[in-house]
Amino acid sequence: MFRQLLHSLSPSLVHSGRRNSLAYITNRALFSTQTTATAKMSLEEAKKCAAYKAVDEYVKDNTVVGVGSGSTVVYAVHRIAERVKAEGLKLVCIPTSFQARQLIIEHGLVLGDLECNPRLDCAIDGADEVDAKMVLIKGGGGCLLQEKIVASCADRLVVIADYTKDSAKLGQQYRKGIPIEVAPMAYVPIKGKVESRFGGTLKLRMAVAKAGPVVTDNGNFILDWSFPADKEHDWDAVNRDIMMIPGVVDTGLFVGMATKAYFGQQDGSVTERSA
């Protein structure tokens, strides 16, 4: 690598000695690091902008709010807590996962459940990808079942995401596939049936910090389906067909559920899409 960088230097720098060459390499590496950091900050700022705008427009006093999962939702909960403190809002927050539950508790918000609050005014959640028809892929974090249950109980599902989650069609940007939550004993036959009927490949999601597969909050496994991207799909029909396979608990396809999506952009603006 050192020799490759030396070839990229001007002749004057090369002949000025080792000290100048090393200084050039150091400065070049520092510039690269700073550029990468700026890009990451831009992405986080985009998430924050989308989350703040959604909370400001949809969270009202004396309502029940579903709190989704994922990195973008962290900003939404922070904004909800700010508004509760500043405006004295009375809210009950329903979590979609262990992570969401902890966020609600840590921010001093009122924690509720579906037993006492079976109807929600709105749910605010992230997405791994949103297509032009407002079909979502969710479940990259493994919380798809509880996310879909909470969303189904809400009058409005509001999606918050950064610009990298906005696609014309599913699979355009998100390449990890559609998550399918399954009963552990059935994952092999389900894998074969989906591949045979719809094509593509299914892979059992493996854990990172433990041996073996990922186990969801509900004690199930997740199959990630890399579907054929070279053909059009009727995602409503595909979702219904997969759900009919014995052992399938739920899918990460959210069809006809989202009311509105907010996409934070690199420049700090927010674009919107309605169902």
From TrEMBL:
Keyword Isomerase assigned: yes
Which region is the signal sequence?
none
> What Enzyme Commission number(s) does the record list for this chain?
5.3.1.6
Matching InterPro entries, A to Z?
NagB/RpiA_transferase-like, Ribose5P_isomerase_type_A
BP GO annotations:
D-ribose metabolic process; pentose-phosphate shunt, non-oxidative branch
Q: Which UniProt keywords apply?
A: Isomerase
> What family is it from?
Belongs to the ribose 5-phosphate isomerase family.
What this protein is called in its record is ribose-5-phosphate isomerase
